[in-house]
Amino acid sequence: MKSAKRWMLGFALSASLGMLCSPSLWASEATKRPNVLIITTDQQRVDAASVVGNKWLKTPHLDALAAQGVYFTKSYCSYPLCSPCRGSLHAGRFPHEIGVDHNNMSISPSVTISGQLFQQAGYDTAYAGKWHLPSPYPTDGIPGFTVLNNTTRQKKLAHDVDDATMRVAIEFIKQKREKPFYLVVSFINPHDICLLAGEDSPLFEQVWEKYGPPAGAELPPLPASFALPENEPTWLLQRRPKHPQWDENHWRRYIYAYYRMVEDVDQQIGEVLKALRETGQEENTLVVFTSDHGEGLAAHRWTGKMMFFDPEAAVPLIVSWKGTTPAGRIDENHLVSTVDVLPTICDYAGIKPPAEVRGQSLRAIIENPAVPWRSFVVSEMAHTAALGRSFMVRTDRYKYMVIPVAGQEPLEMLFDMKADPDELKNLAGDPNLSDQLKQHRNLLEQWKQTTQESKYPVLPNPQAGRPRAQRAKRAA
């Protein structure tokens, strides 16, 4: 259990960095710390990049970023929903600890977030794009950050809003300064796939026109898990988004459109990275890329998020610093989490994160994959105060889920991720795996005690009671 205990501890000490011999024109001679650039997308699956072998899309700019760093494929979001995971990333703690149980909620003011840490450490800090804590585009600022664009979506497609985010980010990067910078660039796409899942959206036809397949286009295949198992739990049958009129061809068109959205935002990411190169800052900038959650994309016939299957819960995580991080490594072994982002960027910047941080710096396993590492990661979802929360525990081989069901015993699922990567065979009732089930229950209980989950009752959902169309509009 030593590795499990390491998971519970925040990264304690950060080493000071010796940097480049000749500083960039955009950095002070006295400043040896790296710039830090976090780029996020919204609703991007861990496998939605050509660098990890997906032949149904081309992401040359993410591929180039990964070619200079490490792409983690056993990377899980802390909560498969926008606001909770985004808040968790910037706090290095789990959503229940920071008061963000649902979308459109503020991080507890007692929690220190990344912008405050870097600002206090002398960084020039800025935020461009979607925030969603509580409002998608804040008009009242973000603690520790200069907000670069106080725009609102105003029924525009994500591409239009992302273009504005890209432009202000590039302007910020091109500014000459005496301090290192910490910049967050938060894009929306491929989140517009939600507009194709909800046919009541006024933008439905416009999105299909922009991203849908032209006549004769080759469509991606359906995932293996599109064919549902016979023992599908009733809870899943009831919760699955309903698309009764969709035939297999429609599902494949949906997948096609999603990949075009990923390609769209990849081009905008490329322009931001180009600005780093053109200003001579590429070799003095740590870049982290990730997403807040994935997308069902027909796996288990699911659209959207709010589930613990890999399509929804696994997200890309790239840590890249040209000339410093190992080049072009696809890490398929280490279990990493959203909560690791803050301690990682703090480590490289020589900043000590708050003691309450739950994540670990990834720097150790980036530099030496053989060092001891944690044995599991956890993701959570909040329901109501009466029901409580659902949880996922992912170990090296297995994934355990426990979901409260009103008036019934909690639903438990256990999947052998090596033998059954599509998560089709629930082994929770297999007597031969009773020890594994018990072990994963124990890991979860240990984690809940360490994060004091029982002291944080589920907070009311600010969107509860709103009609579905209003909820979708607000979430966008």
Largest sheet strand order: 5-4-6-1-7-8-2-9
Main structural class: alpha/beta
The CATH architecture classification is 3-Layer(aba) Sandwich
**CATH H level, superfamily name:** Alkaline Phosphatase, subunit A
CATH topology label: Alkaline Phosphatase, subunit A
Describe this structure in words.
- The protein is about 30% helix and about 15% strand.
- The chain is of the alpha/beta class.
- A hairpin with a 7-residue loop joins strand 13 (about 400-405) and strand 14 (about 410-415).
- The chain is globular, with a radius of gyration of 21 Å.
Summarize the structure.
The protein is α/β, with parallel strands linked by helices and 476 residues long. It contains 15 helices and 14 strands. The protein has helices at residues 2-8, 60-67, 82-91, 95-98, 114-120, 158-174, 193-197, 204-211, 234-239, 248-278, 310-313, 341-349, 363-367, 434-450, 468-475, and strands at 35-41, 69-72, 75-76, 124-129, 146-147, 181-186, 285-291, 317-320, 329-331, 336-337, 376-382, 389-395, 398-403, 411-416.
